[in-house]
Amino acid sequence: MHPLLADSLAAVQPLPWRTVEQRIGWRHGNPEMIPIPHNVVITIWLENCHSIDSVAMFALNGKYNKGQFASFRLKYKDPRCTILNYFATGRSIVVGAKTPNAAFYALHQLRKYLSDDRKNAGIKFVSPPQVSNIVLAAMFDYSLNIAAMHAANSSNTNYVPREFSGACYRPFPQAEREGCKANIFEEGAYTILGGTNMEIAVQIADKIAELVRPFKVGGWQRRDVVGEREAEFKLEKRKYSEQAELREARRQKLLQRVALHESELSEENY
Prior knowledge:
Elements: H1 3-11, H2 17-24, E1 36-47, E2 62-64, E3 72-77, E4 80-86, E5 91-97, H3 100-116, E6 124-125, E7 130-139, E8 143-144, H4 146-152, E9 157-158, E10 167-169, E11 181-184, E12 189-195, H5 198-212, E13 216-217, H6 225-269
Antiparallel strand pairs: 1-5, 1-6, 1-7, 2-3, 3-4, 4-5, 7-12, 8-13, 9-10, 10-11, 11-12
């Protein structure tokens, strides 16, 4: 073995799990599941772009068809991902990679492909690759009443059971990280979308855990899935409205008592 390689291997040290938790902001001892990346989207810009010639149509992992989604598509098995090249606009997008590192590796493969081909040798990367989106997934070890969750948090959740089985949750105000959201499902699974790093994903996961905490249930046994969810949605919405009316009535009574008490004190002081 080459001495330089041997020294490099000897310098590799295992990374303690506690260090991983600290770097992504995960609370030590947190019993919930850390969200796992399933799809990383990276964007990069190219210069001196032009249409790929017909030779590209015969690449084993390439496909060229202007009428389809991308001008030129490259697929890789290891790491598994797809590169969509828009030579008309100079944009290249990596989708389907499990981690940012895998997506970056695919971009190196693209650069090698372009530099090896004589016609495409002039096409260069003119911007650093940027992570546009990371899709992550995790699961709680309990089921959820997402109809009740939505009724109590209608300002930042959206749930239409006849159209989609999960509730869409926006953890941040629209002006802050507008693209970040999560889809939460009644069996306890959820997906996070719109984040660009693990730190943001962990923040969203913490907010989701806090959001669902009051709405844990034992499980669901359904026959008419959509019909039952629709009925639960209407029932929980009505229950929450009735509770809100009761709370408002109690608040008004308290305000009246406070006003009466202040009036009595004012009279005594006078």
